[in-house]
Specification:
- This protein has 59 residues and is an all-alpha fold.
- The chain contains three helices and no strands.
- The chain has helices spanning 4-15, 19-28, 32-55.
- α2 packs antiparallel against α3 (32-55).
Amino acid sequence: MCDVKKFEQIYQEIETLQPEDTMQLVLEAETEDQRAFYEMVGDFLLQLRQKKAIEGNLF
């Protein structure tokens, strides 16, 4: 069984990433798999920000 608390902490850290942070991670990724993962994280965070903007009528 996985350590749920550990992954909750990782998720909370990921949520604080800014677009330039995810871009840096993508550019400095050592493998294609890592690059794809960081791109997905960046897309996920962008979707969250878009959702908040739409919900708050901020667009």
